[in-house]
């Protein structure tokens, strides 16, 4: 990769350095103006990828060299720019760009990368990169590296959300930066000329870009189940019989809604994997792209899983608080009074005891497994696993959590669904509705576990393709 890098980075080097610095053998030299947080993260990543880095500071003697990795040279701004083979990063806030005009001569002909972000959305102003290009007309300004966080830059994390967007009016300079980004482990995307730079600068300001869909889905599910529950147990009894159950809205209704949302959201984490498997089985190849909606859904599984976990945690806390309610105390007292009046000594029903113990046990175990899943979804923990371990945890334990959650719900409902009293106003119990999708997912997974399907899928995932995808000459041969 590094050899690929050398040619374009070295080619076209146009240093007017009057006093060039001695260059160590090794990777190409990249310079960074500014010694702040972004500069440090960038230097760490560049050094790890085999580049030599020279940081240019207004006052190099003031910098704590221990903050930068070994091999990073800290010089004056002028010396740093002089020593750059071709690429110079401006890791300085845009309001200070004008202080760099003294470097115009040194920067002439070099690729000047602007990494700054906008401070406001939709301001309609000229972008920072366009301002920089105006200040340095003889440099080739490229906009890019607006990753969401400097942490991602340092860690080199790259999934869909770690894509770096690059734009410039100079195509050769843009190619150089695209290649540099690739060498750093990012997925760069060419988005055109410098006129696109405002959009790139605004990208880090958009809040939680990968969370919008999952949050909206969870919210819609919440509204549906909360509305359904309120209608069935509060609004209709009030309109029909004048029963006032409105006090249930803040706690009881919430606590019944949250597990339903958690269960359906958890099913939505595993459903796209099944759909993807069905696509691959039907197509007989893994080399055809999934439809965009499925790709998008697959990329949001982690967010959906974490939102499901949040609902589970809230459900656990709400459940623990149920007995603290004043209404719970009254219910207990009323039951005791009725028992005494009926002269019943022991009202314990063996079946009910079993039911509640099994229901609680499955709930606690499911909660434990989901906690494990949530912890292993953190990059710092997940990185400690190899691929098989990670797949086992995320898929094997994931389905275990789903099964335990379904059992928890089934034990909660017990045989209640078979009595007409559970269907007031012809509305089925909510837990039955919440079980539909998770059960479909579980049955679908069991179906895919059939040996004929598992073996075919395993073959496809190892690169096998059905005959209809073979090139014609191969078929003839
Ligand atoms: N693309 C991305 O994802 C990200 C981009 N950024 C961008 O990177 C740039 C730097 O951010 P960051 O490193 O966090 O900021 P810092 O404040 O940590 O660092 C800025 C550096 O600029 C240098 N500098 C040069 N001239 C001046 C001046 N006149 N006044 C003040 N400082 C000056 C200073 O270095 P010295 O004193 O050594 O000269 C200072 O350390 C910003 O434009 C920011 O928007 C930041 C985070 C993420
Ligand atoms: Fe529960």
TrEMBL record:
<protein>
    <submittedName>
        <fullName>STEAP3 metalloreductase</fullName>
    </submittedName>
</protein>
<dbReference type="GO" id="GO:0005886">
    <property type="term" value="C:plasma membrane"/>
</dbReference>
<dbReference type="GO" id="GO:0046872">
    <property type="term" value="F:metal ion binding"/>
</dbReference>
<dbReference type="GO" id="GO:0006826">
    <property type="term" value="P:iron ion transport"/>
</dbReference>
<keyword id="KW-0560">Oxidoreductase</keyword>
<keyword id="KW-0186">Copper</keyword>
<feature type="transmembrane region" description="Helical">
    <location>
        <begin position="206"/>
        <end position="228"/>
    </location>
</feature>
<feature type="transmembrane region" description="Helical">
    <location>
        <begin position="303"/>
        <end position="325"/>
    </location>
</feature>
<dbReference type="Pfam" id="PF03807">
    <property type="entry name" value="F420_oxidored"/>
</dbReference>
<feature type="domain" description="Ferric oxidoreductase">
    <location>
        <begin position="261"/>
        <end position="399"/>
    </location>
</feature>
<keyword id="KW-0479">Metal-binding</keyword>
<dbReference type="InterPro" id="IPR036291">
    <property type="entry name" value="NAD(P)-bd_dom_sf"/>
</dbReference>
<keyword id="KW-0406">Ion transport</keyword>
<dbReference type="GO" id="GO:0015677">
    <property type="term" value="P:copper ion import"/>
</dbReference>
<keyword id="KW-0472">Membrane</keyword>
<keyword id="KW-0410">Iron transport</keyword>
<feature type="domain" description="Pyrroline-5-carboxylate reductase catalytic N-terminal">
    <location>
        <begin position="30"/>
        <end position="116"/>
    </location>
</feature>
<feature type="transmembrane region" description="Helical">
    <location>
        <begin position="431"/>
        <end position="453"/>
    </location>
</feature>
<keyword id="KW-0812">Transmembrane</keyword>
<keyword id="KW-0967">Endosome</keyword>
<feature type="transmembrane region" description="Helical">
    <location>
        <begin position="390"/>
        <end position="411"/>
    </location>
</feature>
<feature type="transmembrane region" description="Helical">
    <location>
        <begin position="358"/>
        <end position="378"/>
    </location>
</feature>
<keyword id="KW-0274">FAD</keyword>
<dbReference type="GO" id="GO:0010008">
    <property type="term" value="C:endosome membrane"/>
</dbReference>
<dbReference type="Pfam" id="PF01794">
    <property type="entry name" value="Ferric_reduct"/>
</dbReference>
<comment type="similarity">
    <text>Belongs to the STEAP family.</text>
</comment>
<keyword id="KW-0285">Flavoprotein</keyword>
<keyword id="KW-0408">Iron</keyword>
<dbReference type="GO" id="GO:0008823">
    <property type="term" value="F:cupric reductase (NADH) activity"/>
</dbReference>
<feature type="transmembrane region" description="Helical">
    <location>
        <begin position="260"/>
        <end position="282"/>
    </location>
</feature>
<dbReference type="GO" id="GO:0052851">
    <property type="term" value="F:ferric-chelate reductase (NADPH) activity"/>
</dbReference>
<dbReference type="InterPro" id="IPR028939">
    <property type="entry name" value="P5C_Rdtase_cat_N"/>
</dbReference>
<dbReference type="InterPro" id="IPR051267">
    <property type="entry name" value="STEAP_metalloreductase"/>
</dbReference>
<keyword id="KW-1133">Transmembrane helix</keyword>
<keyword id="KW-0813">Transport</keyword>
<dbReference type="InterPro" id="IPR013130">
    <property type="entry name" value="Fe3_Rdtase_TM_dom"/>
</dbReference>
